[in-house]
Specification:
Shape: globular
Helix content: 10-25%
Largest sheet: 7 strands, antiparallel
Distance between the termini: 21 Å
Number of helices: 2
Strand content: 35-45%
């Protein structure tokens, strides 16, 4: 089994940070974007191709286009605050952010890292903003020294290095909404 060595950050717990909280107005505004964006099933990258595997990743996603600039500006502010701790060399938001909707009965998203090959090789900071908390299950879990589970409150934005193994636990009741994005930079060395 591979192990990740977290960066030495003085104010983060095991390298996971919560540097920013969205207002209720912001969370609702982001969720309402789903009314105007096309929905697709979430996939996983295997051998440089996106493939569907609902037993591993069971989510509906909405790609947020460049024209919705206020979301990009919000994510850059979050990344700026997170990077005060991480101190990574960053260039910005290269990939489009995603609005995610996990439904009751969803298997969530199995163990994975956000750092990968091809388009995903420059990811440095992963951002996951929880947009509601009226559901059960769906914890954001990290594998560090065993499994650490987080169930953030509405609006909390969790940031972590893209090489951290993590998953979304199955949703047992309700609907879980989140906004996710990746801030890229030069490859890790």
């Amino acid at each position: 089994m591979a192990l990740a060595i977290p960066p030495q950050n003085k104010n983060t717990e095991l390298g996971v940070s919560c540097p920013f909280t969205l207002s209720e107005e912001e969370t609702q505004k982001i969720i309402r974007l789903s009314d105007q964006l096309p929905m697709r099933k979430g996939g996983i990258q295997r051998e440089n191709q996106i493939q569907s595997d609902p037993k591993y990743r069971d989510v509906n996603l909405y790609i947020i286009p460049e024209q919705i600039k206020w979301v990009d500006e919000l994510l850059i502010r979050i990344a700026y605050h997170a990077n005060q701790e991480f101190q990574f060399s960053l260039c910005g938001l290269i990939e489009r952010p995603q609005l995610l909707r996990y439904h009751q009965g969803s298997q969530g998203y199995g163990w994975h890292m956000d750092l990968g090959s091809g388009d995903h090789s420059g990811r440095k900071i992963a951002i996951s903003c929880l947009l509601n908390d009226d559901y059960e299950g769906g914890e954001l879990c990290f594998f560090m020294d065993g499994e650490a589970k987080f169930k953030p409150a509405t609006g909390q934005c969790i940031t972590f290095p893209s090489f951290f193994p993590h998953r979304v636990a199955p949703i047992t009741k309700g609907t879980r909404w989140s906004l996710v994005a990746w801030i890229s930079g030069d490859p890790f060395r």
